[in-house]
Amino acid sequence: MSDHHELGHIDFDSGAAVESAAAALIAVWAHSRHSAATHVSSTQLQALLTIERHVEINLAGLGEALGALPSSTSRLCDRLEATGWVRRGASHDDRRELTIQLTPAGKDLLEKLRARRREDLAQVLEEMPPAARKALLRGLRAFTAAAERVTDRRMEPTDENWTLIAGRFLA
Fold this sequence. Notes:
The chain has helices at residues 3-7, 12-34, 42-54, 59-66, 70-83, 104-126, 130-154, 162-170, and strands at residues 57-58, 86-90, 98-102.
């Protein structure tokens, strides 16, 4: 019998349970970022993740992706460049256009943040009984697939999927 039939009708309390679990996940995620050796602001992390996703992006594209004004985006890039996490250079397509790319230090920062987050999540999972952990992981895979189906039906076509959008909120 499927989990859906075992649970019966999905009610308000089920949504509240998922919301509570999501809040706990966000708390672990935030702790991982704040406890990292190198502190990076949410805006800086969003910018780094956007640059990583595009590999190379111009200032206007980054500003649009972040929902920021060009002047704010330029100052943000100045700060990121000063930290050594990004570099600006001429576009491969148009030498007059400046693009922004992650440096090896920027890539390393993102990988360290991801590794820390995975360690923190593994610590939480380790606190669970093995059967509950297995059920959770199975349920999370099903939840992710269902969320993708629902999101695909609700959203207009875009080059970003829901996990990328959520990543900006969780940064």
